[in-house]
Design brief:
alpha/beta; Thrombin, subunit H; 7 helices
Length: about 350
């Protein structure tokens, strides 16, 4: 386990293909960072480890139907993932097979949606969309797109169930191409139980982008690749609520690594921006980082070789991280987006 930095062997049968139903019936590993003690439980029991006045911070971003299947005019099949909107009709996308996405090539989709390939940028390309009827590009994209579940879940082929399964109960602001998966375990009943215990909750917004799934390394023996920029929203209220919570001696619990990236980016910005202003973060959290904004973390078991795994290592340390993952692999935990969770105290 993790002899290679940021890597471990993950058997395919350990990767959850569907979530537990109800979602809060997933397993939960509770990790005491101070003592190293591990406790197995069920996610709906999370309230037992929290106190009245503790604060959960959650990412309320909403996943868009970002994966589209189409074909070239030659009939060859293609696939795209909407990554970033550039203007009303133009998007930066990831494409497959990318070598066929040459400038000027037309892409044909269902619902009379057309795309024309433009400039190659970074790991993707720009595409200008248009429609052959009176519908707007935005409406056609929404009607044509599917939920962008990761390729390790049913080879990325989503269905009707994923419209619910791959979206948090409290998703509000559209813009993500991957779900903040640690939050998927929080059902309305669980949130109500937490509220009844006096555990408080606040929300922020970070739109999950390619930083969620692009590997840390390029092909071959290359240095670490920084994660891509992600958009988040400035909130003085979140900062104030965190200050109040800590001043009262209670814990701030970040729900998910996307929430961590947003919180750590927010800290230190007070007074410089307006509430609701959208900002970009390039924050890359690696071992040795000093966390400023929270005290405990709810997260899932992450894919080898990704930024999320580095972030959790920075919070737990390599030795305890290795112990937790070894324990999970040996005790029937389910991994990755639809898998089980852990509470790191």
């Amino acid at each position: 386990m993790m002899n290679n930095p940021y890597w471990y062997e993950l058997p395919a049968e350990k990767i959850a293909q569907r979530p537990c139903v109800p979602y809060d019936a997933a397993k939960m590993c509770v990790v005491q960072r101070g003592s190293g003690e591990l406790t197995d439980g069920v996610f709906r029991e999370i309230a037992d480890f929290l106190e009245p006045g503790d604060l959960l911070v959650m990412n309320n971003t909403k996943v868009i139907p970002a994966r589209l299947y189409g074909e070239l005019e030659t009939g060859a099949s293609i696939e795209i993932l909407l990554e970033r909107q550039l203007n009303r009709c133009k998007w930066h996308v990831l494409g497959k097979p990318l070598k066929k996405f040459k400038p000027g090539v037309r892409l044909l989709f269902a619902n009379r949606l057309i795309g024309v390939v433009g400039e190659r940028k970074d790991v993707g390309v720009e595409i200008e969309f248009s429609t052959e009827d009176d519908r707007s590009v935005q409406d056609a994209l929404h009607a044509t797109g599917t939920m962008p579940i990761p390729p390790y879940i049913r080879k990325g082929k989503s269905d009707e169930r994923d419209l619910t399964d791959y979206q948090t109960h409290f998703a509000r602001h559209s813009g993500s191409i991957a779900a903040p998966t640690a939050s998927l375990h929080f059902t309305p009943d669980l949130l109500q139980a937490l509220e009844g215990k006096g555990v408080r909750r606040c929300e922020l917004t970070l739109h999950v982008g390619t930083a969620s799934f692009l590997p840390l390394f390029e092909e071959g023996d290359q240095p670490l690749r920084k994660p891509g920029e992600e958009r988040y929203v400035y909130s003085s209220q979140v900062l104030e609520t965190i200050r109040e919570t800590r001043a009262s001696g209670k814990k701030v619990i970040a729900v998910g690594t996307t929430t961590v990236r947003a919180l750590e980016s927010l800290f230190g910005l007070e007074g410089e921006y307006k509430d609701g202003e959208e900002l970009l973060t390039e924050l890359f959290i690696t071992p040795g980082y000093t966390f400023k904004a929270f005290d405990a973390l709810v997260t899932n078991f992450h894919q080898p070789g990704t930024t999320h795994l580095l972030l959790v290592e920075a919070f737990l340390g390599r030795e305890l991280l290795t112990e937790v993952y070894t324990h999970a692999l040996g005790n029937e935990y389910r991994f990755l987006s639809y898998g089980d969770g852990m509470l790191l105290l």
